[in-house]
Amino acid sequence: MIQIMLGISVVLFAITIAIAVLRLIIGPSMPDRVIAMDVVGVNLIAMIGVVSVVYGTKAYLEVILILGILSFISTIAFSKYIERGVIVERKRDR
Amino acid sequence: MNGNEIGEFIGALLILLGSIFSVISVFGIIRLPDVYTRSHAATKSSTLSVLLTLIGVFLYFLFHDHFVSVRVLLGIVFVFLTAPVAGHLIIRAAYRSKVGLADISVEDELYEVIHEDKPMNDEETEDEERS
Question: What mean pLDDT is predicted for residues B93-97?
């Protein structure tokens, strides 16, 4: 019973990531693609948690933290790039 | 059915509920007309689905292995803190880079607020109000 529920949820997360990749391909503007990438990252976190439960191991739980940090940092970097044109900005004469 | 099996079932039920919320939110991402409404679907309900799923994973490991996973708790706190911030920043960048609204939008109130008393050198004032 529990294995069936976990299998259904893995399939639903796979459908979610597939539709988000579709939006990432056809997205008309740049922020659409960044939002779709954020959705892919966040759902990948949840899917790795479910896969860790299915396999019955605790070794995958570090991956949750690493992927969360990487997804957040990449979204911040892309938003600064879209807004300013640079990622690392240096203070000028001030 | 003893207590541990009931706990595992509650964890699996939360995981299933989170995946259903995730599919609903991604329908919002593929169907809504412009980037601002899409970010509404992406940020709010996607965060809810991921929180439900990670709480389910935490409960499953708590009742199955009697293992309090601090990493999953840290992941829950981190996703709960950073997903709204990331959504806010990317939508702010989208508005500043002049991504248009949908055709069925009625009014853009932020346009009047920003362009009401616009000084000559807007680059400098944007830098000052951000720092």
Answer: 85
pTM here is 0.82
Which chain B residues are closer than 8 Å to A75 by Cβ? Answer: 86, 89-90
Of A57, A16, A49, nearest in space to B75 by CA:
A49
Does the A2-84 domain belong in CATH 1.10.287? yes
ipTM: 0.84
Partner residue facing A50 (CB), from B15, B42, B85: B15
Q: Map out the domains of chain A as residue ranges.
A: 2-84
The domain spans of chain B are: 3-102
State the average pLDDT over residues B29-52.
87
| Positions in chain A whose pLDDT score sits under 50 | none
Among B18, B27, B99, beta carbon nearest to A31: B99
Percent helix / strand / coil, chain A, rounded to 5 = 80, 0, 20
